[in-house]
Amino acid sequence: VGAAVAASQAHLADGLLRDYVAPRVCAMVAQLPRQRPALLRLLYGWAPATAEARIGAIKVLQAELPTQALFLEALSHLVALEEPRLDQWLLDLYSYYAAVGLSKPSPGLRAGALHVLRTVARAHPDVALLSSGRLVEMAGEAGAAWEVQAAAGALAGGLLAALADPEVDE
């Protein structure tokens, strides 16, 4: 329904997203961890498929979610919906929040940031490689949380696959 409204009446879809859909979906995202991917697809369905509308939906999401960790986790799901290519504005937005998450001491924030970078690396390995200095620092830290180690391993595998693929822009 959201995608149909967004395609035919973008202004109406934006208003419904901000005033009705986002507050209710975000409350459920906070309470229902297993349903987050589906709920976030629902929310994103109300945003027209333009960079401006998607950025607006992400800003609404950030305002509605109770924690930064939950917001970064949500971004890790939303960035996967952007594939195969990200618009430059969206690429900048996801890269910025990934860098913010990597700079935080929270394992949850770091893991979320690494998941965002892993998805970005599929089509833009050069952007993910810009964080390599921070990744090396994190690898040298003693006692890194298991979720950060797992996410870093997934990112490394994704980078290797993307760099080996001749069709991926570097």
Mean pLDDT: 87
| Alpha-beta classification | mainly alpha
Tell me the major beta sheet: none
Question: Terminal Cα separation, in Å?
Answer: 37 Å
Rg computed from alpha carbons, rounded to a whole number of angstroms: 16 Å
Q: Which series of helices and strands comes N to C? A: HHHHHHHHHH
State the helicity in percent bands: over 70%
Which spans have pLDDT < 50 for at least 5 consecutive residues? none
What does this structure look like?
- The chain contains ten helices and no strands.
- The protein has 170 residues and is an all-alpha fold.
- Helix 1 runs antiparallel to helix 2, helix 2 packs parallel to helix 4 and helix 3 packs across helix 5.
- The termini are far apart.
- 36% of the residues are buried.
Features:
mainly alpha, 170 residues
Describe the secondary structure blueprint for this structure:
Blueprint lengths: L1 H7 L1 H22 L4 H10 L5 H14 L3 H14 L6 H15 L4 H17 L1 H5 L2 H8 L6 H19 L6
Helix pairs in contact: 1-2, 2-3, 2-4, 3-5, 5-6, 5-7, 6-7, 7-10
Nutshell version of this structure?
The chain has 170 residues and is mostly helical. 77% of the residues lie in helices and 0% in strands.
